[in-house]
Amino acid sequence: MRRKNKVILFSFLFIVVSIGDLYGVVTGNSTIEAVFKPLILTLLVIFYLVSVTKPNFWVVSAMFFSFVGDVFLLFNESYFVFGLGSFLITHLIYIKISSGFLKKISTRKLFLVSIPFVLFLVLLIGLIYPNLNELKIPVFAYATIIATFGVVALLNYVEEKSTENGWYLIGVLVFMISDSLIAIDKFYQTNEIYGVLIMITYILAQYLICKVLIQKNNLD
């Protein structure tokens, strides 16, 4: 099968699986969600592999840890910390990848782009802090890492305002929204709509990041 046809096929399958998972979330059917959720990153990594000429080890690793995180979060509350740890590793890898796009950055520029993400971190932690209990340290560490991911993505866009970097920044910001909704739903105020919004933003974020990394890979 030609590469173009493979890309189209796995893009279609990714959409089908994503819709299937969202259906499971909307209907509250944990069995459907357990079947489709692990397939989201499985198909996305295949989509990545068939789209690039030379796969990047770190990109595949980030998707692998996202897959592991998805699986852990399907189980009961006792596995939440493991899921959190898996996604923390995912974001650390994405930060490593994103940092490779940067050239020389001034201290002043770093300070300025960090301001909105520091505010985000303070507001989110301030909102959920009273209910974190024994999870204060891991949640704070996770929030700090994803805020750092946002800083690096914005630095990348400020340095080179290309279409790819713009979509990459949007993907990272949407990922932050997804993670923030998880934190708010779990540690502040539960709402049924959060489950749907979390998955929509998560799927969109992973797809956008993957798509941009494919484009950057093929430009090398």
How is this structure best described in words?
The protein has one domain. With 220 residues, the protein is mainly alpha-helical. The chain has 8 helices and no strands. It has helices spanning 3-27, 30-51, 57-74, 80-99, 107-128, 136-159, 163-187, 192-219. Helix 1 runs antiparallel to helix 2.
Question: Total strand count, please?
Answer: 0
What is the distance, rounded to the nearest whole angstrom, between the alpha carbons of the first and last residues?
A: 24 Å
What is the approximate shape? globular
Classification by helices and strands: mainly alpha
Total count of helical runs of at least 4 residues: 8
Question: What about the largest sheet?
Answer: none
Primary descriptors:
mainly alpha, 220 residues
Helix-strand blueprint:
Blueprint: H1 3-27, H2 30-51, H3 57-74, H4 80-99, H5 107-128, H6 136-159, H7 163-187, H8 192-219
Helix pairs in contact: 1-2, 1-8, 2-3, 2-8, 3-4, 4-6, 5-6, 6-7, 7-8
